[in-house]
Amino acid sequence: MDWGMKNRLSRIIRPDDGRCLMLAVDHGYFLGPTERLEVPRKTIAPLLPYADSLMLTRGVLRTSVPAESHVPIVLRVSGATSIIGEDLSKETITTSVEDAIKLNASCLALSIFVGSKYEHQTLANLAKLVDEGEKYGIPVLAVTAVGKEMARDARYLGLSCRIAAELGAHIVKTYYCDNFEEVADGCPVPLIIAGGKKLPEAEALKLSHDAIHHGAVGVDMGRNIWQSDWPVAMIKAVGAIVHRGADPKEGYGIFLKEKEKDKSGQKSPQKVVKTVGRSASFD
After folding, report:
1. Residue range 232-241, pLDDT digits in tens
2. Considering the domain boundaries, does residue 273 fall inside one?
3. Would 275 be classed as within a structural domain?
4. Model confidence at 262, in pLDDT bands (50, 70, 90)?
5. pLDDT band, residue 263 (cuts 50/70/90)
């Protein structure tokens, strides 16, 4: 592995503990103005100091993240579908590697849809992106998106993750499931876990802990952080589990403690309205 590739990977997965806390804010590329991500810069700004890396599109990066930021960028480069379109799996590569280099991206992210109508197209996208990434020393994160007919079980996720690794992905983002250690054992590259739909904070923290305990190197969370009424408290609690080895009870205690600190400076939180249909495959 070339020096540049190693260096960029070390920005995503911290060398001191081999863990990562990625903040996902790329939802708008197919969902539009997602609840509590309507104005990306307002959502991102208070959370940025606590994230190891930030996953987003070039449009949101250019408009909503200060260029002075030193947080590594995981740049989503696939898309061209929408929540109201024919099929979410009909993705293509939407951002050139040259533009990713101009944006100083540390990693490139792309979704694959194993078992979907457009499986071949998305897997070919991944293979092409890996070739381009290898040429310039930029790692690729494959996201194992799950269609509404697909079961999120160890057999399906193990298949998707292994195929992504076989095609050359350097990191794979997937879902936690029963018997997750089988998925991790069968994937020769690091796995990070999607948070998925909004859960109660205690459940999301347990998900983070269990995923790492069973073989993931970290999490890529979005809605379970910024759709919380107390997002800064939540990202701090997730960070304690990821990097300090806190158990779910300790993590929730940290969340409650940080929540009390935040209360004095915040307005009353507003209720989250569930986003319409077909967004379950994202974080």
Report:
1. 999 999 999 9
2. no
3. no
4. confident
5. confident
The predicted model gives 123-142 an average pLDDT of 98
Provide DSSP, 76-92.
E-EE---TTSS-TT--E
| Bridge partners, 142 (sequence order) | 110, 172
128 within a domain of the structure (yes/no): yes
Residue 102 class from Cβ within 10 Å (0-12 exposed, 13-18 middle, 19+ buried)? exposed
What is the 3 state secondary structure string of 245-268?
A: CCCHHHHHHHHHHHHHHHHCCCCC
Average pLDDT for residues 235-256, to the nearest whole number?
98
Q: Which domain holds residue 256?
A: 3-263
Pairing between strand 92-93 and 78-79?
antiparallel
Residue 267, pLDDT > 70, answer no
Catalytic annotation present for 173: yes
- Based on the structure, what is the number of domains in the chain? 1
Q: Residue 181 carries which side chain, given as an amino acid letter? A: E
Asked whether residue 272 is assigned to any structural domain, the reply reads no
Average pLDDT over residues 131-136: 98
Stated pTM of the model: 0.92
Query: First CA to last CA across the chain, in angstroms?
Result: 30
Calculate the alpha carbon distances from 249 to 21, 117, 159, 164, 188 in Å.
19, 42, 33, 34, 31
Kindly state the DSSP code that residue 146 receives in the 8-state scheme.
Answer: -
Say if residues 165 and 187 touch (Cβ distance below 8 Å): yes
86: domain CATH number is 3.20.20.70
At residue 147, the pLDDT reads 66
**Cβ of 33: how many Cβ atoms within 10 Å?**
12
In angstroms, what CA-CA distances link 247 with 20, 194, 212?
Answer: 16, 19, 11
**Alpha-carbon separation of residue 3 from 6, 128, 137 (angstroms):** 5, 21, 8
User: What is the per-residue pLDDT across 145-155, written as a single tens digit (0 to 9) for each?
Assistant: 886 667 889 99
Q: Choose, from 128, 173, 197, 271, the residue flagged as catalytic.
A: 173
